[in-house]
């Protein structure tokens, strides 16, 4: 079953790359009492993610945060080191990068995608959501392209 508006996000542990290496981040702590925009990509450094999806959020970060958003978070089925390198490559310091290395979060919310035939294994679908205190207020899942999960769409929903 896929995540829906009104659902509460599950509590799972994701990873970020801290000064001492990978560090655990619990989603309950990440979302509790905050308005958070979370967007997910199938893979860091992939063409659509690097050329279209992430740049929109980098460019629009200040506008999104000015709408009362406490954090902008990007997640992908990559490890914390890759997410850290991608953050630096994309100049995405305003975005919290979280690794869902084993696709646990993507699977828990019903938004994983099996790309094994393409040699990529299980990945996340491309989506964006707005959560208030962990409750989903908006969810846009893209089948093709980046229209439902773009920074522009998120701004229109805030």
Describe the structure.
- The protein has five helices and nine strands, in the order ββαβαβαβαββββα.
- It is an alpha/beta fold.
- It has one domain (7-157): Glutaredoxin.
- The strands form three sheets. It has a five-stranded mixed β-sheet with strand order 5-4-3-8-9.
- α2 (47-66) runs parallel beside α5.
- The two termini are 26 Å apart.
Give the structure's gist in a few sentences.
The protein is an alpha/beta fold and 158 residues long. The protein has helices at 27-31, 47-66, 80-90, 104-108, 151-157, and strands spanning 13-18, 21-26, 35-41, 71-76, 95-99, 112-114, 122-124, 127-132, 135-141.
Q: How many structurally independent domains?
A: 1
Q: Outline the biggest β-sheet.
A: 5 strands, mixed
The computed structural class is alpha/beta
Strand order of the largest sheet: 5-4-3-8-9
Question: On the 0-100 scale, what is the average pLDDT?
Answer: 93
Question: CATH homologous superfamily, by name?
Answer: Glutaredoxin
Q: Give the CA-based shape.
A: globular
What is the fold-level CATH name, i.e. the topology?
Glutaredoxin
- Fraction of residues in β-strands: 25-35%
Descriptive keywords:
Thioredoxin-like_sf, 158 residues, two-stranded antiparallel ribbon, alpha/beta, thioredoxin peroxidase activity, five-stranded mixed sheet, Glutathione-dependent peroxiredoxin, Glutaredoxin
Secondary-structure map:
Layout (H helix, E strand, L loop, with lengths): L12 E6 L2 E6 H5 L3 E7 L5 H20 L4 E6 L3 H11 L4 E5 L4 H5 L3 E3 L7 E3 L2 E6 L2 E7 L9 H7 L1
Parallel strand pairs: 3-4, 4-5
Antiparallel strand pairs: 1-2, 3-8, 6-7, 8-9
């Amino acid at each position: 079953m896929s995540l829906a508006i009104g659902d509460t996000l599950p509590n799972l542990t994701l990873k970020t790359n801290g000064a001492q290496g990978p560090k655990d981040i619990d989603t309950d702590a990440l979302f509790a009492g905050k308005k958070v925009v979370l967007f997910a990509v199938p893979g860091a450094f992939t063409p659509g993610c690097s050329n279209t999806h992430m740049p929109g959020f980098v460019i629009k970060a200040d506008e999104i945060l000015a709408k009362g958003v406490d954090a902008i978070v990007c997640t992908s089925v990559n490890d914390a080191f890759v997410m850290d390198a991608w953050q630096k490559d994309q100049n995405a310091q305003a975005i919290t990068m979280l690794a869902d290395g084993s696709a646990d979060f993507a699977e828990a919310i019903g938004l994983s995608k099996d790309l094994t035939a393409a040699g990529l294994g299980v990945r996340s679908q491309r989506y964006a959501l707005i959560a208030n205190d962990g409750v989903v207020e908006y969810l846009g899942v893209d089948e093709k392209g980046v229209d439902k999960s773009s920074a522009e769409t998120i701004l229109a929903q805030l």
